Amino acid sequence: MQTILVIEDDSFLKNLEAAKFTKAGYTVLTAMTPEEVDAALATATPVVILLDLMLPGTDGFALLGKIRANEATKTTPVIVFSNLSEESEVKRIMDSGATAFMTKSNFTLEEVIEKIKSLTPTV
Question: What CATH fold (topology level) applies to the domain 3-119?
Fold first, then answer.
């Protein structure tokens, strides 16, 4: 089974995403802090990372940079899933190494799953 890492600070949304992605056939790891991200990445290499930028105790952009600097995840697709949607913010997100950007309020989780499928190899 392919693994997805969901980095999300909203517990309700994190659990909803995990349930939806699990039902779609993925193994789901979740994290809210940089320490939890490190712990999750120590146990598995995800095929995709879903990253919210508004996180407690860290800047999502810094975390994206850390993901890109990590040898194991430097080429892993990262979908930034956030409500930041100003053109300048989206440009910064993409310039920071995101593979894709999806505004939370504009996409359903089914559409996120379709995006994940488009970015990952079939098994």
Answer: Rossmann fold (3.40.50)
Domain extent listing, the chain: 3-119
Residue ranges, the chain, pLDDT below 70: 122-123
Q: Report the alpha-carbon angle 22-26-29, nearest 5.
A: 80
- DSSP single-letter state for residue 24: T
The structure's pTM equals 0.93
Q: Measuring CA to CA, how many Å separate 20 from each of 9, 15, 26, 35, 40?
A: 17, 9, 9, 24, 19
The identity of residue 3, as a single letter, is T
Quote the pLDDT of residue 121.
Answer: 72
d(CA 42, CA 70): 11
What does the alpha-carbon distance between residue 98 and residue 25 come to, in Å, rounded to a whole number? 24
Predicted pLDDT at 123: 53
Distance between CA atoms of 2 and 32, rounded to whole angstroms? 21
In sequence order, the β-bridge partners of residue 51 are: 7, 80
How many other CB atoms are found less than 10 A from the CB of residue 43?
9
